[in-house]
Amino acid sequence: KYKPFGLSEQRDTVTLFVDIDEKKSYSMDIGVGFASNEDVFAKIKATNLNLAGLNKNLVFDGKVSINEQWAGISFIEPDLWEKPISAFINLSGKRVIEEKYSYWSLGPSIGLQRKIGKNIFTNISTTYELRKSFDVKNSSTPVLFKRGFFSDSSQVQEEKDIPRNILKFSPSINYDTRDSFTRPQKGVYSAINLTISKGLGKSNDDFIKSKFDFRFYLTPLKNLTIAVRNQFWHITAYGEIYTLPVDQLFSVGGPLTV
């Protein structure tokens, strides 16, 4: 609603009063589902897009299932330096339970995201992680992955059940021309992610992970959409020991083994 004073009188100066009702800046999403590898799970996400009227974002999300529980809280600056750059600070914790092993992790991360043009997004982040993993009793699951072959737990010296301190640096770039995020019918999505990890104090977590994801969507008929997806994952260890804990591998067994 607006009220112009002086317009009807054709004055040289017109004063305009505008009444503005701000759209609600907060929301909450709750979901419950079922997956063959998780059984029943529940998710929650609470968002405030205008924290204390400062145009800052605060996001809390979490998930609970039989094999995985995690929660995180993020503070986001959507317009850093009045540029198309967003910055975030995040604190998250996670606990994963697999058939042969489990681990928990906790730590903060900071990062930047910049949009280039209409379809390109670049990201860079740094994460400190405190992680503790262990094998389930009476398991023959490998404790470590050695370059070139799996080594059975009876053939390697098991690491003590102590927390590991890990520092990660992760740049990525995404290209997205999809017409919809939830139900795309045409377009291309591709992403390249790189993670450089450094174990603080020990070299067991010294590795480089790379991920490539490509998706293509085409709708030749009104109710028919063809989707093609290709993924490539690679991990390699570096440093003195050239070993990796099993909880850092891409494929660790279970229903979703690649």
How would you describe what is shown here?
The protein is an all-beta fold. Helix content is 0%, strand content 60%. It contains no helices and 16 strands. Strands 3-4-5-6-7-8-9-12-13-14-15 form an eleven-stranded antiparallel sheet, with no helix packed on it. A hairpin with a 2-residue loop joins strand 14 (207-221) and strand 15 (224-237). The chain is extended, with a radius of gyration of 24 Å. The protein starts with a strand and ends in a 13-residue tail after the last strand.
Strand fraction equals over 45%
SS-derived structural category: mainly beta
Low-confidence stretches: 138-158, 252-258
End-to-end separation: 58 Å
- Please summarize the sheet with the most strands: 11 strands, antiparallel
Order of helices and strands: EEEEEEEEEEEEEEEE
Q: What's the tally of helices?
A: 0
Q: Reading side by side through the largest sheet, how are the strands ordered?
A: 3-4-5-6-7-8-9-12-13-14-15
The rounded Rg comes to 24 Å
Number of strand elements: 16
Broad shape: extended
Residue share in helices? under 10%
* pLDDT averaged over residues: 81
